[in-house]
Amino acid sequence: MGYLLIVDDDEDFAGAAAKVLRDAGHEVRVELDVPSAVRSMRQRRPDLAILDVMFPEDSSAGFSLAREIRGEAGNLRDVPLLMLTAVNSRFPLGFSSKDIDDCWLPVDEFLEKPVDLDLLCARVAGLLSHARAPENRQP
Amino acid sequence: MATYTLSFPDRASPSAHAAPRALAHDLPEELLLRNALWFCRLRWLVIGLFAAFGVLGLVPGLLPRLGLRPPGAWPLVAAAVLFAANLAWLAHAHTIAAKGRHAPFRGERWNVPLFQPVCMNLWAQIVADLVSLTLVVHHVGSLETFIAFAYLFHIVLSCIFFPRRWSLVVTALACALYLGTVALEEAGVLERAGIYADASLRELMDHLPGVRLAHVAWAPFTWFVVWYLAAHLSAEVHSRDRELAETNRLLLAAQEERRQHMLRTTHELKAPFSAIHANVQLLTKGHCGQLPAEAQAVLGRITTRCRRLAAEIQEMLQLANLHSVTQEPLPTAQLDLAAIMRWSLARVAPMAQERQIALDADLHPAPVWAVEDHAKMVFANLLSNAITYSHPGGHVRVEVAPQHGGSASVVVQDHGIGIEPAKLPRIFEPYYRAEEAVRHNRESTGLGLAIVRQAAEADGLTVHVESEPNVGTRFTVLFPPSPPRSPGLGKGDTPPSAVDGALSPFPSPALRRKENADGVLADRG
């Protein structure tokens, strides 16, 4: 079980995902915008962050946040990231190829919206157990 | 059995979909270059004529019998000089063309400055032609023959290819050269020449100054009239061309705006739908406690419709993305179609299981150059189509095999309801669904094969369909042997990607490495 942070501007979706993940035994915090998410992560490091991509004022804020997390000097840089997208193509609306360059974008897993919540739980469990495996721990 | 083939052999070049052209005043560089090359090819004919005339002149007594004077060496010298010059211009034009292929001419580069290499080439050809022609005019007979009207060829061509002021320069240059030659002949600086054996016509003119003057003035007067008419008509045609280009640009922009709007709207639908879908799952999966049987039945119906709506939104987004002309083209990569098919089969396996359809695959490694996302879309849609229109308990046969010359074929065959021959050509239209198809399955959106068509068109694939009602349908997709032309290839080829285990929509190398290490090839969602 772990402490999970969901960053999604859609409260209804985030609430439903949080409910299912809590029922699966995780501790879950929901943040509806990127600045609050950054503050929350600095206060307490999540074991895993679930990020949405598109936010009202920035259609690729989730990608920017992912890069910011990976660029952090502290212990946030190795937080496993699961990206939720509502898009289904490699070059969708408003994103540039830079946003989704395989080398550039350091997320661990993608799930496409609408999300099967059982699949979400399975992916979260997989990422947490992978992160906790001794060979993947940061020294 | 009826058949239908969807083929895109003459796929429009990427530039056909490129950014709309700006308002133009002159012809674009690429067209001028084609003209320069055409000029050169045309000149071979003239060179041939000179050479033939020179050779005929060498045959003793032949030309005098026709009333002509043997020309001496000038036709052969002219042919040799033009031959050498033409080789040089051709080489220069081909060099420019090669550079253009390296850094393609931009569609909007219409207003070509005078000192661009292609213009210098054309001007060099025209000036040299006019000078050569003047020498020919002198030798053939400047006043007593109609040779002076040969200048009209260059005047009219310059009116078509160049703006009005440039063609006027060509006309003025022709006048200056012609009148200068006549003046030098009259002044006795140039010895009179001519091809007519009988000099009486010229002598008659010498005695009639008015006739001589009329002959001298008639040619330049005609040239200027022709220049005016041709330049005017050419300007009209260019203006019409520009109007059409502008209308085309506006149409493309409107079409693109509509697509973008549709894409945005569909996407906006998807976000709230995700929330609805997630909350319905809370209820159906018991996260809010046990529900009465009737409520569960209602939720079951909602879930079914949710699934249909999710598929429809997904397909509308895919189709809109494929249609979008402003979108960056996806890079091609070397793919193994068998691996892509395995990935696609894994994706449709739950659907096949639900409908009790057996999937029977015969996959051989088939490396081709293709767009990974498009190949996945084509396979996933053909497979789900075959499963959807099979009878319960039936089976779908899938074959992937390399073909001669580096191409590859993919076959998806079902034994389902089949398609009536008259309806075959319509199955690739968006939202088209045959009546019997709707009766068989109400859930299908009618967009799957439209997506196949768009992806096939984008990548130059050929899709062949054979079908017989109540017997089944067989789709054969042929991938082209060579790397399809792709503007995305300009910056260097995309390295071959390992598609086994690739995640849609965004395969991450880091994840692939981890999955390979874990040996996990789970559901790809």
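qc> Residues 3-132 of chain A form a domain with the Rossmann fold fold (CATH 3.40.50.2300).
qc> done
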